[in-house]
Amino acid sequence: MGDDIGRELEVEVGKIAHGGISVARHEGRVIFVNDAIPGERVVARVSDDRKKRFWRADTVRVIEASEHRREHVWGAASVDRDPAERAGGAEFGHIELAHQRELKAQVLMEALDRTGGIDADTLADALGADRLTIEGLPGEPDGTGWRTRVRLNVDEQGRLGPYAARSHRVIPVNDLPLATPEVQAAAPLGERFAGEPHVDVLAPSVGSARLIIGKQARSTITERVGEREFALADSGFWQVHRHAASTLTAAVQQAVDPAQFDPASANLDLYGGVGLLAAALGDRFGTGLRITSVESDAIATDYAAENLAEWVGARAVTSRVEAFLRQLAAGSAPERARLESATVVLDPPRAGAGLDVVDALASLRPAQLVYVACDPVAFARDAGALRERGYRLASLRSFDLFPNTHHVEAVASLVRE
Ligand SMILES: C[S@@+](CC[C@H](N)C(=O)[O-])C[C@H]1O[C@@H](n2cnc3c(N)ncnc32)[C@H](O)[C@@H]1O
């Protein structure tokens, strides 16, 4: 253990795996290879040999390149650099955009099948098509220029940059091609910020770009989605791609089956943030909508209450989803009945909702769920568990909300059988 770090292996790269790494084999051992493309032959340098059955390695030379390889969109993350000097956060930047999406589709389909037990036929029924396609958002053809929020970390000398992949080593950079032009212009890349932990650069859709230096006091910003405006803390959560909020709004509105929807039921927006998806339902189903947005961050909940004020039946609650659902399970018979006819939107963080939440939802038996997912394996686990508890995967769409990275977003509807 440790003896093989730095060793260079020539490998044939096989399929893509969760996390954007490719799988290769060498002397009977699995090697997870970064910065390669399935089908390539590369020289990869071992970076982690702690496990007996698999090692991790970084591509240092491409011997036979995939037809889908292109020059990396970000020089700072290029395979030409030493792996320790490569900027993280753009791990698919060396792959043509259309092929990135094909690889993301493969990862999502494999996760649904292997982790969720949702085979190709079941998936085809939900998709209304044979194959899953990852839908692109409007933007540059090379997948740059979309990030409205960037965190820059500070090194010992006060210089700014992203972390290297899988490391806390700051890589000072002189450009940020994945960021919007407004973020790029505002990012103080040449300046020094010694003593600060990080500098966030953000460009909300209303007003000018701004910096948040370290733990600077929060202020309110406005994001516009279609005709609607949302107030939120500049340090709070908001979707990162400049078209993500509008894309998810439309996708959630479309995912809800109107035949199963009752505006007067105890509808829920779980992991609600500042109320984006509750408002999506409100805009689709009108002023009579009853909905509770549940969010663990009290500041976000305050903004959600303000953003949802025009719906008399909307409220925002600060609670962990797990605790909130436990409380509902102890409700009276009429309350339980209002939940059985409800629609629940859930948009959990990367870890997914988890089995406790899935179990609680299954016992409350809402009519339909709209699951917005940012991690394929966590989503597949939860979708599989929901199927076992009587929910049919009724529709699934997926979106390239994070071009040039391995991340992919899915919006699924699950209907009680
Ligand atoms: C992916 S964001 C979605 C926010 C919102 N739906 C949106 O699109 O803007 C997930 C949100 O869940 C919140 N969160 C994380 N874990 C939670 C939990 N266990 N219970 C309630 N909220 C949680 C986070 O603070 C964050 O605002």
Features:
OB fold (Dihydrolipoamide Acetyltransferase, E2P); binds S-adenosylmethionine; methyltransferase; eight-stranded mixed β-sheet; 19 strands; 417 residues; 3 domains; five-stranded mixed β-barrel; alpha/beta; S-adenosyl-L-methionine; Rossmann fold; transferase; globular; 25% helix
Walkthrough of the structure:
With 417 residues, the protein is of the alpha/beta class. It has 3 domains: 8-69, Beta Barrel (OB fold (Dihydrolipoamide Acetyltransferase, E2P)), CATH 2.40.50; 101-139 and 241-416, Rossmann fold; 149-225, no CATH class. Helix content is 25%, strand content 27%. It is built from 10 helices and 19 strands. The strands form 4 sheets. An 8-stranded mixed beta sheet has the order 6-18-19-17-16-13-14-15, with helices on both faces. S-adenosylmethionine (SAM) is lined by residues 237, 239, 271-273, 276-277, 294-297, 300, 320-321, 347, 349. It holds the Pfam family TRAM. The active site is at 374 (nucleophile).
Topology of this protein?
Blueprint: E1 8-16, E2 22-26, E3 29-34, E4 41-48, E5 54-64, H1 97-114, H2 120-127, E6 134-135, E7 149-154, E8 160-161, H3 181-186, E9 198-202, E10 210-213, E11 220-225, E12 228-233, H4 244-255, E13 267-270, H5 276-285, E14 291-295, H6 298-307, E15 314-318, H7 321-329, H8 333-340, E16 343-346, H9 355-364, E17 368-373, H10 376-388, E18 391-399, E19 409-416
Parallel strand pairs: 3-5, 6-18, 13-14, 13-16, 14-15, 16-17
Antiparallel strand pairs: 1-2, 1-4, 2-3, 4-5, 7-8, 7-9, 9-10, 11-12, 17-19, 18-19
Bound molecules: S-adenosylmethionine (SAM).
